[in-house]
């Protein structure tokens, strides 16, 4: 399964990189598992879903009022209806209305036999045992027919649909207590670097705290993955190889941080090629060009740059769609567009993802303003940003008001 540096593409476009990583992920779909509806939010349906019965199962009142026959409504003047009873929501006892009769009813209560109309209580006048209805009411009004939401056997959701709160609510309305979903992708994070120290430890000169561990763990959880564990590995080929092999046995996705460029301590490209297979190395993206994608055993491996911003940018651009494909997600994410609030000049031929903030103006337009400091180590700008502006390879400059695509950052 190994390959050499000459047997895989390098310096590919973002579009090609995304297509390749999504294809790799889609080729290893995750097995299904059943979870309770309370735990189904954000999960991905493993099978198509249809309702077995009508929802609602019976015609019911949409308002508090009086149920009667629409044919009995007066065309002019008024008519007095005989009040023959009352029905509250949840009352399933037999009830019926005949000609000239009505039944007091509350919202959600089953419509009595013979009735097809509800006149709201604000539109009637009570006199003794009679209910007076004036002309102008509409036959069939204020009634929810059986199957108004879903008919028995009607298609509801396709496999690959992400379960939102409303969709989980629909499943509950079908009477389901659990649902088959794709198992959450299992991920292991390997951070590397002799200069990297865990937060809480003494920081010596020349060392930095490990921010990538926390950032990548949050990104993985936000994308629906289960974080199996995190390891920090020193810049030693034998230790890195051992960590890679163990991670690949335990995870569907291995995300590494650092050691992926071409420096003396950048061992990841050669190691992944030896113990597995490299699909591509280096992407025409800024920040994050050294990113590598490959496979070890059945695990997909995404080796990200160690610079904090580069790691986050490549994760959002390439790893997030791979996780969606692993879970079998079928929904396409529509692109977001805005106008740039300041001129932008790009003096290179790579796609660039700039940290920015967006604002909605009173005329309905959305504008984005990039941060002046775009260095790949400036994590503060990501923390203060709410989106990434997408500058394609061919874009050299943008004037104020030009349209640009942007990616909302997680949680924004």
Word description of this protein:
- It is elongated and about 95 Å long.
- Strands 1-19-21-22-18-14-17 form a seven-stranded mixed beta sheet, with helices on both faces. Strands 8-5-7-6-10-9 form a six-stranded mixed beta sheet, with no helix packed on it. The protein has a five-stranded mixed β-barrel with strand order 23-26-25-27-29.
- The model has no long low-confidence stretch (mean pLDDT 94).
- The protein is of the alpha/beta class and 412 residues long.
- It folds into four domains: 10-30 and 184-326, Molybdenum Cofactor Biosythetic Enzyme, Chain A; 34-55 and 148-182, Alpha-Beta Complex (Molybdopterin biosynthesis moea protein, domain 2), CATH 3.90.105; 60-144, Molybdopterin biosynthesis moeA protein, domain 3 (Beta Complex), CATH 2.170.190.11; 336-408, MoeA, C-terminal, domain IV (Beta-clip).
- It is built from seven helices and 29 strands.
Short précis:
With 412 residues, the protein is an alpha/beta fold. It is built from 7 helices and 29 strands. A hairpin with a 5-residue loop joins strand 25 and strand 26.
């Amino acid at each position: 399964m190994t390959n050499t540096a000459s047997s895989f593409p390098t310096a590919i476009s973002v579009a090609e990189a995304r297509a390749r990583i999504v294809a790799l992920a889609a080729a290893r779909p995750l097995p299904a598992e059943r979870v309770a509806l309370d735990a189904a939010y954000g999960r991905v349906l493993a099978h198509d879903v249809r309702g077995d019965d009508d929802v609602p199962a019976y015609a019911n009142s949409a308002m508090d009022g009086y149920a009667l026959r629409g044919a009995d409504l007066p065309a002019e003047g008024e008519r007095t209806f005989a009040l023959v009873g009352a029905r509250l929501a949840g009352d399933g006892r037999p009830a019926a209305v005949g000609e000239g009769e009505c039944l007091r009813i509350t919202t959600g209560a089953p419509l009595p036999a013979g009735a097809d109309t509800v006149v709201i209580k604000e539109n009637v006048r009570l006199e003794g045992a009679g209910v007076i209805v004036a002309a102008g009411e509409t036959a069939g009004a204020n009634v929810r027919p059986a199957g108004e939401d879903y008919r028995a056997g009607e298609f509801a959701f396709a496999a690959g649909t992400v379960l939102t709160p409303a969709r989980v609510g629909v499943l509950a309305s079908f009477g389901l207590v659990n649902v088959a979903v794709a198992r959450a992708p299992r991920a292991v994070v390997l951070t590397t670097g002799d200069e990297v120290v865990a937060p809480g430890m003494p920081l010596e000169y020349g060392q930095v705290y490990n921010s990538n561990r926390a950032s990548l763990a949050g990104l993985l959880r936000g994308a629906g993955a289960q974080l199996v564990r995190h390891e920090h590995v020193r810049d030693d080929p034998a230790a890195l190889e051992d960590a890679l092999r163990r991670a690949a046995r335990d995870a569907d996705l291995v995300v590494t941080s650092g050691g992926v460029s071409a420096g003396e301590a950048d061992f990841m490209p050669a190691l992944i090629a030896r113990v597995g297979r490299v699909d591509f190395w280096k992407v025409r993206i800024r920040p994050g060009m050294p990113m590598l994608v490959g496979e070890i055993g059945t695990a997909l491996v995404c080796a990200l740059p160690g610079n904090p911003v580069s790691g986050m940018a490549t994760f959002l651009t390439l790893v997030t769609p791979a996780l969606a494909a692993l879970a079998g997600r079928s929904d396409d994410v529509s692109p977001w567009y805005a106008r740039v609030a300041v001129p932008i000049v790009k003096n290179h031929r790579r796609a660039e993802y700039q940290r920015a903030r967006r604002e909605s103006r009173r005329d309905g337009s959305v504008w984005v303003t990039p941060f002046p400091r775009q260095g790949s180590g400036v994590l503060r700008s990501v923390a203060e940003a709410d989106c990434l502006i997408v500058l394609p390879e061919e874009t050299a400059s943008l004037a104020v008001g030009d349209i640009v695509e942007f990616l909302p950052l997680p949680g924004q």
